[in-house]
Amino acid sequence: MNRRFYLICVMALSLAACQAEEPTSPHEKTTPMSQSSSAAASTVAVTKPIEHNAAQNLQANMAKAKAKAEAEAEAVQVIENAKVVVTEKTAEASKAVETAKVVVAEKVTQASKATETVKTIVVEKAAQASKAAETAKVAVAEKATQVAATVKTVVTEKMAAVSKPAAALKPAATVKNSELTMPAVVANPATHIVTATNTQTGDAVKGKALARKCMACHAFTDKKKMGPGLKAIMGRKAGSMTGMKYSEALASGNWSWNETNLGSWLCNSKTAVKELTGDAKAKTKMPAQRICDADKQADMIAFLKTL
What we know:
Layout: H1 2-20, H2 32-162, E1 175-176, E2 179-180, E3 185-188, E4 193-196, H3 204-210, H4 248-251, H5 259-267, H6 269-277, H7 294-305
Antiparallel strand pairs: 1-2, 3-4
């Protein structure tokens, strides 16, 4: 279509140019036949290069159109391939999500079951602990009752022993001027303290066994613990051990330890400190040991003399 259009345009222009020419001399006049031949030759001469260019342009355009079509086809194919890949990946992702949902549901179920199991175990353990606590309470109450009864019995016996009249106590095994002499003993039921001269000879071995309870606070050497060391206690001034933190009453005490005041101290240190200081408000850190039996006091003092 374009080629024919070009040819028509070229022929029209050539005819118009021939008609417009005028002869320059009388000899140049031509006939209509010669004019027609000349125009045809001119048209052919003009159209040949135009046709060649048009053909080249047409081929170039067709090549471009083909390349474009091929590029478009390739792009379409790439898009289609991408769509397929996206569809596959979407399907895989959807499947993975469903699988994950199933796994999560199973884990949640397992966790819920485990929680219920733990709750059951905790409830059972709490019930067992409560039962054990109640059993322990009953046992403690029984032990406390037994201990209270035992302490009451012991205290009653000790009070009875302390309250015996002087005539009922064991006389000293010494005879002077044909007379039987006894240790000077004063029974004081109100304070449960026996103040004795302890002239009888004690058993140091028995005293050592009795003194084991003293090891919780005292050393049988010159080393201090919670209380002062008991080495060389006989004749030592009260509250005089270096580096020991005594109560105010003992730190300012003006007596030395002997059989008499040690006997009082072993029976009831709380009362003895008041008697030894003459101060009714005097206090000591040492708890009352309640060793009020004269024989036991003699044994303890005999052991302390060996230190």
